[in-house]
Amino acid sequence: MTRDDLIAMLREQTPACGPARAALIAGADFVVWDGLVPANRHAGVFRRRMHHSLKRGHTIDGLADSVDILALTGEEPLRTGSIDAVDRSSWFTIFLNSTATAVVACCGGRRPTTIKSADTPESGTWSPR
Fold this sequence. Notes:
Layout: H1 3-9, H2 17-25, E1 29-32, E2 37-38, H3 39-55, H4 63-73, E3 77-84, E4 90-96, E5 103-110
Antiparallel strand pairs: 1-3, 2-3, 3-4, 4-5
Helix pairs in contact: 1-2, 3-4
């Protein structure tokens, strides 16, 4: 698959597709893996990621839409891929059909600028034992 092929496949499947397409146009790195995984298995994994990210106060563009699309797609085997912006400020996960000729869903966006660990003094749970 070429960059132009992937750019053409990223339409309006989810709100993250436009920014993912823009990142590719700007020269983002991308990869599509060969393995196939049933869409509904992806839905379960990414549903948990969505709940985890919401607990931390992070939103991921297109994630809820992607989870819904993946759940509705059922047992259909999908390929996954990723797009990483040139400046590493944003990332995207893409889900493609088994032949990698169509994007089924896309999620991602800007990386958080700060991440607080649960064991840092600022979080109030750190103890120097």
